[in-house]
Amino acid sequence: MSVASMALKNLARQKRRSLLLGSAVAFGILVITVVNGLSGSLVTSLSANVSNLVPGHITVRGVEKSVAGRVSYLMKDAGILEDVVQKLALPGRVVKSTIVPQAALVSDFGTQYQNLTGQDLGPGSLLAARMALVGGSLEDFRGSSKILISETVAKKLGVGLNDRITVQTVTKTGQQNVLDFRVGAIYRDPGMAAALAGAYADIGAVNALRNMTAGEYTDLGIYLDDVAAADQWGARLYHALEAANVPLWPRGTPEDLRKLYREGTWTGTKYTLLTLNDMLSALKGIFAAMNAVAFAILMVLFLVIMVGITNTYRMVIYERTREIGTLRALGMQRPQIRNLFLLEAVFLALGGILAGFVLGVAVLAGLSVLDLSSWKDLNVLLQDNRLRLFVDFGSLLFHLAVVSALTALAAFIPARRAGRLTPAEALRSTH
Amino acid sequence: MKRFLLSLSMTVSLFLTQGLSAQDTDFHAILAQVDTQSTFPGDTSAKVTIVSKKAGKADNIMQAQFFRNDTEKKTVILMLKPEVNKGQGYLEIGNNMIFYDPESRKFSKISTSGNFQDSNAKNSDFEPSALATNYTVVESARDALQTKDVWVLTLSGKRDDLTYPKRKVWVEVSTNLLLKSEDYSLSDRLMRTSLYGKYVNLDGRFLACKMRFEDNIKKGEVTDMVIENPSTAPLPPSIFSQSFLEKVNH
After folding, report:
1. What is the ipTM of this complex?
2. pTM of the prediction?
């Protein structure tokens, strides 16, 4: 009989003890699976939903600071950038946008400051295909002065479809300008990602507001076929732009970059490259922190479980001293005795991990069928008003390795003691 | 009939007189005079209280001390109130303006065309007038503002980086003081109305000490600015420096 099958039989002999220890391991794994699954689900939905609202999964923006200290977005030398993007052959679609940061949207009932994005919003445009509208349509946006706003902004401004909104901002040279828009469509509120969204209008109308010519724009965005590859392609594009001697800002989050733009006494035009992950960094940080806290709790839980395992195996070896003596007398070697107990512990851990993982997935599957449409602020984290089922097999393998190693470590000292017992001494034992 | 003819002839003669006087008047010189009267040959300082009113919000009351040397085109504004903004400072030398934040202890370059502390006053409202330098007169008329005889001048910007590409100003005929200004957007929409209610005479130059800035786009947004204790006493040159803004915060 092999050592492994003996270990399994021994576990089966002590059903209640094995069940209790295995349940403790399973509970820890259940918690971490649910937390990881939830945060993974939320981040995946967030990326998918927000990717519809931003000017590209990767965007290159021209930032100009005048001698008088005025910072404005404007793409200069666009030809060089377009060449680099074309040569790199990024798998996706290139879209030009004009971004107006913090434009004042004014109605008779109030003012809301929003980023205004000018894009081609006509039929066939990416935004038109992806935007979840709750009213109106984008069909006749091309060449019009219609504006697309969120449900919350519409409510705060007290406006509905076809109502007038006055938009105030400065032109590319710093002159005050005002134009009237009509609410052409309203999109579903992105809740906690509202800061990343804003108002949208046809690029022609936004360029008129900024006193920019028809071909000018501020952002060269790339909507990739695979959103997950945004960081990888972003890094490649950044290096390609560097190689083409394009003056670039360092990589960073939008908040870091805005600080850089304001500080110092630089003048001229520099380009900034942002990926979807850069734009989502603040929100993703929350989930990363959530995962880190869950892992820390898991580690504390396993320290307690390790103490339990060590004590249990010390007791097991004490109870089974005569049995160890018999096995040694029958010719079993010291390492085999040690491995027998180590394998018992590892099998126990593996059983607990698998049970915990299966239970965790069952909990996640249960949560994913709940209709959460009433959670308005969180709907950017949902897919079709439900949590997306996310199972992280990578973290399962990681936990398998860590928890098995920890369990083996906890059982190692008692197992080594068992292996060092001499047969005669063990057989003389009266336990 | 006699009365009608008399009144008609009076109207025509008044129109002709006004028309002639408008034709004969050098409006650029009037603008230059407005600028000269608001520019001080030496140092100026005063305390300014700004009350910013926005619909549905509590009034925001701010206080600042400003120092100007118009000859060297230098301005310093030091925030005194509210407590949260105390110590923040603005330093303008020539066309460059920097803002000092005592919390981060950092300077950042800002635009003079920006709004002062989220009010309807612009950073440039603390500077002497520069109408003749920045604008040309495209239309003129003589009118009355309340009881005062005024020139109403429509101005067009000489450059494309002026905050307001078009302005309409009311200048008192007898004093060449600016009494009212309407600021228009590039799309020719009225954006801001400024009223200059009171001036103080300091050594033959004039400092507006009661002003009102009304936002014509955002209904209900008004900022009142009152200037107190104006002085033309010489100031130490070290005031117009970054180290001054840092030092006052230690």
Report:
1. 0.81
2. 0.73
